[in-house]
Write a structure and sequence with these properties.
Strand order of the largest sheet: 10-1-2-11-12
CATH architecture: 4-Layer Sandwich
CATH topology: Glutamine Phosphoribosylpyrophosphate, subunit 1, domain 1
CATH class: Alpha Beta
Structural class: alpha+beta
Number of domains: 1
Distance between the termini: 41 Å
Order of helices and strands: EEEEEEHHEEEEHHEEH
Largest sheet: 5 strands, antiparallel
Helix content: 25-40%
Number of helices: 5
CATH superfamily: Aminohydrolase, N-terminal nucleophile (Ntn) domain
Strand content: 25-35%
Length: 243
């Protein structure tokens, strides 16, 4: 399975994904699910994928192929005039791939369902965060719903619901994303490390953070341990409701 989370706050965007795919108890692999594109000073874009791996890989390959060998007049992630248009281009690529492979998968009883988180900012426009569906349509994050999750989202959602608002500082929102992932890692074996993270501060058009977090990352291990200790301490100090 997969867990990807993207958070939009006033100060910036945080995207975080795992790398585990699970096609059965004895068929576990690692695949990158986060992809980034940057034109320094002009735009920075992150895409994260979940669902049928063959579908999402084909979508990413098509988007990159169009950048590498653009046809006359074809808009790409690098030439789109707005993040809304970027989301449309991602949706168009999803629709092309689904139309090509979806019917064959369905005929064999296989699901082609896939989702893509699209986040970023282009110079002259605001930070924007979209969730693209299998049909190529999409929705946008708002102040009322400032984060999106795809994949195994239920374990990591409670902390986001309690903590995340647009006013939360970027550093705190990053911590919340990491703790959301930590909760998912502890509760679902189909989500696994290493993790990929990108952090984009508003109006910089370059990633402040773009790195892979491995099992030997001391900062993540310390964060996980401190969160566990804090939860235990809070639990033992809560007054009994019954009895």
């Amino acid at each position: 399975m997969t867990y990807c989370v993207a958070i939009k706050v006033n100060e910036g965007l945080i995207c975080l994904s795992d790398t585990r795919t699970n096609a059965g108890l004895d068929n576990i692999s690692r695949f990158k699910k986060m992809f980034t594109w940057t034109v320094p000073g002009e735009r920075a874009i992150t895409l994260m994928t979940a669902g049928n791996l063959a579908i999402t890989q084909a979508v990413m390959s098509l988007l990159q192929e169009n950048i590498d060998k653009p046809e006359n007049g074809l808009e790409t992630l690098y030439s789109a005039p707005s993040m809304f248009r970027v989301a449309e281009i991602v949706g168009d690529a999803m629709r092309i791939v689904q139309d090509r492979y979806g019917p064959g998968l369905a005929a064999r009883g296989e699901a082609s369902d896939s989702t893509i988180i699209c986040a970023g900012q282009r110079a002259g426009g605001p930070l924007r965060l979209f969730l693209v569906y299998s049909a190529g349509n999409f929705i946008e994050a708002t102040d009322d719903s400032p984060f999106f999750q795809i994949g195994e989202h239920k374990y990591g959602k409670p902390i986001l619901d309690r903590v995340i608002t647009p006013e939360v500082p970027l550093a705190d929102a990053t911590t919340a994303a990491l703790l959301s992932m930590d909760s998912t890692l502890r509760s679902n074996l189909s989500v696994g490390m290493p993790l990929d993270i990108s952090v984009l501060r508003k109006d910089t058009y370059a990633f402040e953070t773009e790195e892979r977090i491995g099992t030997d990352n001391g900062r993540f291990q310390a964060l996980s341990q401190r969160w566990s200790d804090a939860l235990r301490e809070a639990f033992v100090t809560i007054p009994q409701v019954i009895g």
